[in-house]
Description:
Layout: E1 4-8, E2 12-15, H1 20-31, E3 36-39, H2 50-63, E4 71-77, H3 85-93, E5 96-101, H4 121-130, E6 133-136, H5 150-165, E7 170-173, H6 179-187, E8 192-196, H7 198-202, H8 205-209, H9 226-236, E9 243-245, H10 254-257, H11 272-282, H12 289-300, E10 309-319, E11 324-326, E12 329-331, E13 339-343
Parallel strand pairs: 2-3, 3-4, 4-5, 5-6, 6-7, 7-8, 8-9
Antiparallel strand pairs: 1-10, 10-13, 11-12
Helix pairs in contact: 3-4
Amino acid sequence: MTDTLTITQPDDWHLHLRDGAYMAAVVNNSARCFGRALVMPNLADPIRTVADAAKYRERIMRALPPKSTFEPLMTLYLTAETPASEVDVALKSGFVLAVKLFPAGATTLSDSGLQSWREAIPVLESMQKSGMVLSIHGEVTDPEVDIFDREKVFIDRVLTKLVDAFPGLRIVLEHLSTKEAVSFVEAAGENVAGTITAHHLLLNRNDLLVGGIKPHFYCLPIVKTEQDRQALLKAATSGNSKFFLGTDSAPHPRSEKEAAIGKAGIYSAGHAISLYADLFDSAGELDKLEGFASFYGADFYRLPRNTTKVTLEKSNSEVIPAVLDYHDQELIPLKGGETVNWKG
Length: 344
Protein backbone atom coordinates (compact mmCIF):
# COMPACT_ATOMS: atom_id res chain seq x y z
CA MET A 1 0.00 0.00 0.00
CA THR A 2 1.29 3.46 -0.92
CA ASP A 3 1.63 5.59 2.22
CA THR A 4 2.95 8.76 0.56
CA LEU A 5 2.54 10.44 -2.79
CA THR A 6 4.95 13.13 -3.97
CA ILE A 7 3.74 15.37 -6.79
CA THR A 8 4.62 18.71 -8.31
CA GLN A 9 2.90 21.48 -6.36
CA PRO A 10 -0.63 21.83 -7.74
CA ASP A 11 -2.40 24.95 -8.97
CA ASP A 12 -6.03 25.99 -8.63
CA TRP A 13 -7.40 27.33 -11.91
CA HIS A 14 -10.70 28.61 -10.50
CA LEU A 15 -10.81 30.29 -7.08
CA HIS A 16 -13.04 32.83 -5.36
CA LEU A 17 -11.39 34.80 -2.55
CA ARG A 18 -13.82 37.68 -1.94
CA ASP A 19 -12.17 40.85 -0.59
CA GLY A 20 -11.13 42.72 2.53
CA ALA A 21 -11.11 40.91 5.86
CA TYR A 22 -13.05 37.97 4.41
CA MET A 23 -10.43 37.45 1.72
CA ALA A 24 -7.69 37.65 4.35
CA ALA A 25 -9.48 34.95 6.37
CA VAL A 26 -9.29 32.35 3.57
CA VAL A 27 -6.41 33.15 1.22
CA ASN A 28 -3.81 31.31 3.31
CA ASN A 29 -5.85 28.12 3.10
CA SER A 30 -5.18 28.14 -0.64
CA ALA A 31 -1.60 29.34 -0.28
CA ARG A 32 -0.67 26.42 1.98
CA CYS A 33 -1.41 23.93 -0.79
CA PHE A 34 -1.42 25.58 -4.19
CA GLY A 35 1.45 27.30 -5.96
CA ARG A 36 -0.83 29.52 -8.03
CA ALA A 37 -4.52 30.25 -8.30
CA LEU A 38 -6.64 31.94 -10.95
CA VAL A 39 -8.73 34.40 -8.95
CA MET A 40 -12.24 35.20 -10.14
CA PRO A 41 -13.32 38.83 -10.69
CA ASN A 42 -16.94 38.79 -9.45
CA LEU A 43 -16.59 40.99 -6.40
CA ALA A 44 -19.29 43.38 -5.21
CA ASP A 45 -17.39 45.92 -7.30
CA PRO A 46 -16.32 43.78 -10.28
CA ILE A 47 -12.73 43.62 -11.49
CA ARG A 48 -13.29 45.18 -14.89
CA THR A 49 -9.85 46.53 -15.83
CA VAL A 50 -6.21 45.59 -15.46
CA ALA A 51 -5.84 48.51 -13.07
CA ASP A 52 -8.62 47.03 -10.91
CA ALA A 53 -6.91 43.62 -11.07
CA ALA A 54 -3.56 45.06 -10.04
CA LYS A 55 -5.07 46.71 -6.96
CA TYR A 56 -6.95 43.53 -6.02
CA ARG A 57 -3.81 41.47 -6.48
CA GLU A 58 -1.91 43.83 -4.19
CA ARG A 59 -4.56 43.38 -1.50
CA ILE A 60 -4.26 39.60 -1.81
CA MET A 61 -0.46 39.75 -1.60
CA ARG A 62 -0.61 41.90 1.53
CA ALA A 63 -2.80 39.30 3.22
CA LEU A 64 -0.21 36.54 2.67
CA PRO A 65 2.57 35.68 5.13
CA PRO A 66 5.88 37.43 4.37
CA LYS A 67 7.62 34.31 3.01
CA SER A 68 4.69 32.94 1.04
CA THR A 69 5.44 31.93 -2.56
CA PHE A 70 1.76 31.74 -3.53
CA GLU A 71 1.05 33.58 -6.78
CA PRO A 72 -2.44 35.00 -7.42
CA LEU A 73 -3.21 35.21 -11.13
CA MET A 74 -6.02 37.48 -12.18
CA THR A 75 -9.07 37.61 -14.41
CA LEU A 76 -11.16 40.43 -15.83
CA TYR A 77 -14.93 40.58 -15.69
CA LEU A 78 -16.31 40.74 -19.24
CA THR A 79 -19.10 43.28 -19.71
CA ALA A 80 -20.77 44.89 -22.69
CA GLU A 81 -18.61 47.96 -22.01
CA THR A 82 -15.23 46.19 -21.91
CA PRO A 83 -12.99 47.82 -24.55
CA ALA A 84 -11.05 45.53 -26.88
CA SER A 85 -7.92 47.53 -26.03
CA GLU A 86 -8.02 46.13 -22.47
CA VAL A 87 -6.98 42.74 -23.86
CA ASP A 88 -3.61 44.16 -24.95
CA VAL A 89 -3.16 45.79 -21.54
CA ALA A 90 -3.94 42.46 -19.89
CA LEU A 91 -1.42 40.59 -22.02
CA LYS A 92 1.32 43.09 -21.20
CA SER A 93 0.56 42.95 -17.46
CA GLY A 94 1.95 39.44 -17.02
CA PHE A 95 -0.54 38.65 -14.24
CA VAL A 96 -3.95 38.79 -15.97
CA LEU A 97 -4.44 35.40 -17.62
CA ALA A 98 -8.09 35.32 -18.62
CA VAL A 99 -11.29 37.23 -19.20
CA LYS A 100 -14.34 35.75 -17.48
CA LEU A 101 -17.75 35.51 -19.14
CA PHE A 102 -20.67 35.39 -16.72
CA PRO A 103 -24.14 35.20 -18.25
CA ALA A 104 -26.01 37.96 -16.44
CA GLY A 105 -27.69 36.57 -13.33
CA ALA A 106 -26.23 33.08 -13.62
CA THR A 107 -24.47 32.97 -10.26
CA THR A 108 -23.20 35.02 -7.30
CA LEU A 109 -22.38 38.64 -8.23
CA SER A 110 -23.00 38.08 -11.93
CA ASP A 111 -25.50 40.86 -12.54
CA SER A 112 -22.93 42.85 -14.53
CA GLY A 113 -22.43 39.94 -16.94
CA LEU A 114 -23.47 39.60 -20.56
CA GLN A 115 -26.94 39.09 -21.96
CA SER A 116 -25.25 37.62 -25.04
CA TRP A 117 -21.66 37.03 -26.15
CA ARG A 118 -22.49 39.13 -29.21
CA GLU A 119 -22.30 42.19 -26.95
CA ALA A 120 -18.53 41.60 -26.73
CA ILE A 121 -17.56 40.68 -30.31
CA PRO A 122 -14.68 43.21 -30.55
CA VAL A 123 -13.19 41.88 -27.30
CA LEU A 124 -13.55 38.28 -28.42
CA GLU A 125 -11.92 39.09 -31.76
CA SER A 126 -8.98 40.63 -29.93
CA MET A 127 -8.73 37.63 -27.60
CA GLN A 128 -8.78 35.16 -30.48
CA LYS A 129 -6.01 37.08 -32.22
CA SER A 130 -3.83 37.40 -29.13
CA GLY A 131 -4.41 34.00 -27.47
CA MET A 132 -5.95 35.40 -24.29
CA VAL A 133 -8.15 32.79 -22.58
CA LEU A 134 -11.90 33.20 -22.20
CA SER A 135 -13.14 31.38 -19.10
CA ILE A 136 -16.87 30.74 -19.09
CA HIS A 137 -19.57 30.08 -16.53
CA GLY A 138 -21.63 27.90 -18.83
CA GLU A 139 -25.29 28.22 -17.88
CA VAL A 140 -28.30 29.84 -19.48
CA THR A 141 -30.54 31.97 -17.29
CA ASP A 142 -33.80 31.50 -19.21
CA PRO A 143 -36.44 30.96 -16.48
CA GLU A 144 -38.17 28.39 -18.69
CA VAL A 145 -35.09 26.12 -18.58
CA ASP A 146 -34.93 23.66 -15.67
CA ILE A 147 -32.03 24.44 -13.35
CA PHE A 148 -30.62 20.94 -13.88
CA ASP A 149 -30.56 21.54 -17.66
CA ARG A 150 -28.96 24.98 -17.74
CA GLU A 151 -25.44 23.81 -18.57
CA LYS A 152 -26.59 21.40 -21.26
CA VAL A 153 -28.80 24.06 -22.87
CA PHE A 154 -25.96 26.61 -22.69
CA ILE A 155 -23.74 24.25 -24.66
CA ASP A 156 -26.45 23.67 -27.28
CA ARG A 157 -27.71 27.23 -27.61
CA VAL A 158 -24.68 29.36 -26.85
CA LEU A 159 -21.32 27.66 -26.71
CA THR A 160 -21.54 25.81 -30.01
CA LYS A 161 -22.33 29.10 -31.76
CA LEU A 162 -19.53 30.93 -29.96
CA VAL A 163 -16.99 28.28 -30.95
CA ASP A 164 -18.22 28.34 -34.56
CA ALA A 165 -17.90 32.13 -34.65
CA PHE A 166 -14.43 32.13 -33.03
CA PRO A 167 -12.81 28.79 -33.90
CA GLY A 168 -9.39 29.90 -32.67
CA LEU A 169 -10.54 31.38 -29.36
CA ARG A 170 -8.95 29.68 -26.37
CA ILE A 171 -11.75 28.68 -23.99
CA VAL A 172 -11.99 27.10 -20.56
CA LEU A 173 -15.47 25.88 -19.72
CA GLU A 174 -15.46 26.19 -15.96
CA HIS A 175 -16.78 23.76 -13.33
CA LEU A 176 -18.11 21.08 -15.67
CA SER A 177 -21.17 19.42 -14.15
CA THR A 178 -22.71 17.21 -16.85
CA LYS A 179 -21.78 14.33 -19.13
CA GLU A 180 -22.71 16.62 -22.04
CA ALA A 181 -20.07 19.15 -20.96
CA VAL A 182 -17.47 16.39 -20.77
CA SER A 183 -18.39 15.22 -24.27
CA PHE A 184 -18.26 18.77 -25.64
CA VAL A 185 -14.76 19.40 -24.29
CA GLU A 186 -13.54 16.01 -25.49
CA ALA A 187 -14.83 16.63 -29.01
CA ALA A 188 -13.67 20.25 -29.30
CA GLY A 189 -10.31 21.39 -30.60
CA GLU A 190 -7.17 21.69 -28.49
CA ASN A 191 -8.10 25.32 -27.80
CA VAL A 192 -10.98 24.20 -25.55
CA ALA A 193 -10.49 22.78 -22.05
CA GLY A 194 -12.51 22.36 -18.87
CA THR A 195 -12.02 22.58 -15.12
CA ILE A 196 -13.57 20.11 -12.68
CA THR A 197 -14.32 20.80 -9.03
CA ALA A 198 -13.99 18.44 -6.09
CA HIS A 199 -17.65 18.96 -5.19
CA HIS A 200 -18.94 17.97 -8.62
CA LEU A 201 -16.78 14.84 -8.39
CA LEU A 202 -18.09 14.02 -4.91
CA LEU A 203 -21.76 14.94 -4.97
CA ASN A 204 -24.91 14.22 -6.92
CA ARG A 205 -28.37 15.70 -6.53
CA ASN A 206 -29.42 12.94 -4.13
CA ASP A 207 -26.69 14.16 -1.78
CA LEU A 208 -28.18 17.64 -2.03
CA LEU A 209 -31.85 16.75 -1.65
CA VAL A 210 -32.56 13.30 -0.18
CA GLY A 211 -33.41 13.37 3.52
CA GLY A 212 -33.64 17.15 3.55
CA ILE A 213 -31.96 20.00 1.70
CA LYS A 214 -28.24 20.38 2.50
CA PRO A 215 -27.55 24.10 1.99
CA HIS A 216 -23.78 23.63 2.12
CA PHE A 217 -24.01 21.37 -0.95
CA TYR A 218 -25.82 24.04 -2.97
CA CYS A 219 -23.74 25.51 -5.77
CA LEU A 220 -24.07 26.79 -9.32
CA PRO A 221 -23.95 24.97 -11.59
CA ILE A 222 -25.99 22.73 -9.32
CA VAL A 223 -24.79 19.15 -8.77
CA LYS A 224 -26.41 16.75 -11.20
CA THR A 225 -27.13 13.01 -11.54
CA GLU A 226 -24.94 10.10 -10.54
CA GLN A 227 -24.39 9.41 -14.26
CA ASP A 228 -23.06 12.95 -14.65
CA ARG A 229 -20.80 12.56 -11.61
CA GLN A 230 -19.39 9.33 -12.98
CA ALA A 231 -18.69 10.98 -16.36
CA LEU A 232 -16.82 13.79 -14.60
CA LEU A 233 -14.80 11.33 -12.52
CA LYS A 234 -13.88 9.34 -15.61
CA ALA A 235 -12.77 12.53 -17.38
CA ALA A 236 -10.76 13.85 -14.44
CA THR A 237 -8.92 10.57 -13.91
CA SER A 238 -8.44 9.78 -17.61
CA GLY A 239 -5.10 11.52 -18.11
CA ASN A 240 -6.70 13.68 -20.83
CA SER A 241 -4.91 17.03 -20.66
CA LYS A 242 -8.08 18.92 -21.63
CA PHE A 243 -9.36 18.48 -18.04
CA PHE A 244 -7.67 20.06 -15.03
CA LEU A 245 -8.18 21.19 -11.46
CA GLY A 246 -10.31 24.20 -10.61
CA THR A 247 -11.94 24.13 -7.19
CA ASP A 248 -14.47 26.94 -7.71
CA SER A 249 -14.05 27.24 -3.95
CA ALA A 250 -16.40 30.03 -2.89
CA PRO A 251 -16.68 31.12 0.75
CA HIS A 252 -20.05 32.21 2.09
CA PRO A 253 -20.78 32.79 5.79
CA ARG A 254 -22.77 30.04 7.44
CA SER A 255 -25.53 32.57 8.10
CA GLU A 256 -25.89 33.21 4.35
CA LYS A 257 -25.93 29.51 3.47
CA GLU A 258 -28.40 28.45 6.17
CA ALA A 259 -30.94 31.09 5.22
CA ALA A 260 -34.40 31.38 3.69
CA ILE A 261 -32.67 32.14 0.39
CA GLY A 262 -29.29 30.47 0.73
CA LYS A 263 -26.27 31.57 -1.28
CA ALA A 264 -24.78 29.29 -3.95
CA GLY A 265 -21.19 28.23 -3.42
CA ILE A 266 -19.11 25.51 -1.77
CA TYR A 267 -15.89 26.12 0.15
CA SER A 268 -13.15 23.52 -0.37
CA ALA A 269 -9.86 25.35 -0.89
CA GLY A 270 -8.19 24.41 2.39
CA HIS A 271 -8.49 20.65 1.90
CA ALA A 272 -9.17 20.33 -1.82
CA ILE A 273 -6.06 18.35 -2.73
CA SER A 274 -6.92 15.76 -0.05
CA LEU A 275 -10.40 15.34 -1.53
CA TYR A 276 -9.04 15.01 -5.07
CA ALA A 277 -6.45 12.48 -3.88
CA ASP A 278 -9.18 10.41 -2.22
CA LEU A 279 -11.23 10.47 -5.42
CA PHE A 280 -8.35 9.49 -7.68
CA ASP A 281 -7.25 6.79 -5.24
CA SER A 282 -10.76 5.33 -5.03
CA ALA A 283 -10.89 5.25 -8.83
CA GLY A 284 -7.57 3.40 -8.93
CA GLU A 285 -5.96 6.27 -10.84
CA LEU A 286 -3.78 7.95 -8.23
CA ASP A 287 -0.93 8.14 -10.73
CA LYS A 288 -3.08 10.49 -12.85
CA LEU A 289 -3.49 13.09 -10.07
CA GLU A 290 -0.26 14.98 -10.80
CA GLY A 291 -1.17 15.66 -14.41
CA PHE A 292 -4.68 16.83 -13.52
CA ALA A 293 -3.62 18.94 -10.52
CA SER A 294 -0.15 20.17 -11.46
CA PHE A 295 0.54 19.98 -15.20
CA TYR A 296 -2.41 20.38 -17.54
CA GLY A 297 -3.69 23.74 -16.31
CA ALA A 298 -0.26 25.34 -16.41
CA ASP A 299 0.27 23.94 -19.90
CA PHE A 300 -3.05 25.29 -21.16
CA TYR A 301 -2.39 28.74 -19.71
CA ARG A 302 1.12 28.62 -21.24
CA LEU A 303 2.95 28.94 -17.96
CA PRO A 304 5.93 26.91 -16.73
CA ARG A 305 5.04 24.03 -14.47
CA ASN A 306 5.85 24.47 -10.80
CA THR A 307 9.19 23.05 -9.67
CA THR A 308 8.40 22.65 -5.97
CA LYS A 309 7.27 19.22 -4.82
CA VAL A 310 4.65 18.42 -2.19
CA THR A 311 4.09 15.12 -0.42
CA LEU A 312 0.66 13.78 0.49
CA GLU A 313 0.42 11.24 3.29
CA LYS A 314 -2.04 8.37 3.59
CA SER A 315 -3.96 8.91 6.81
CA ASN A 316 -7.12 7.36 8.16
CA SER A 317 -7.45 9.95 10.89
CA GLU A 318 -7.28 13.28 9.06
CA VAL A 319 -10.53 15.09 9.86
CA ILE A 320 -11.66 18.17 7.96
CA PRO A 321 -12.62 20.89 10.46
CA ALA A 322 -16.38 21.08 10.92
CA VAL A 323 -16.31 24.87 11.14
CA LEU A 324 -13.73 27.47 10.10
CA ASP A 325 -13.31 31.02 11.34
CA TYR A 326 -14.34 33.50 8.66
CA HIS A 327 -13.44 36.92 10.05
CA ASP A 328 -16.52 37.65 12.21
CA GLN A 329 -18.52 34.74 10.77
CA GLU A 330 -18.41 30.95 10.53
CA LEU A 331 -17.57 29.02 7.36
CA ILE A 332 -18.60 25.40 6.76
CA PRO A 333 -16.14 23.57 4.47
CA LEU A 334 -17.02 20.77 2.08
CA LYS A 335 -17.16 17.49 4.01
CA GLY A 336 -16.54 19.37 7.25
CA GLY A 337 -16.26 17.02 10.22
CA GLU A 338 -15.55 14.02 7.99
CA THR A 339 -12.38 11.97 7.60
CA VAL A 340 -10.21 12.04 4.47
CA ASN A 341 -7.72 9.32 3.59
CA TRP A 342 -5.00 11.63 2.23
CA LYS A 343 -3.44 14.49 4.13
CA GLY A 344 -2.23 17.31 1.89
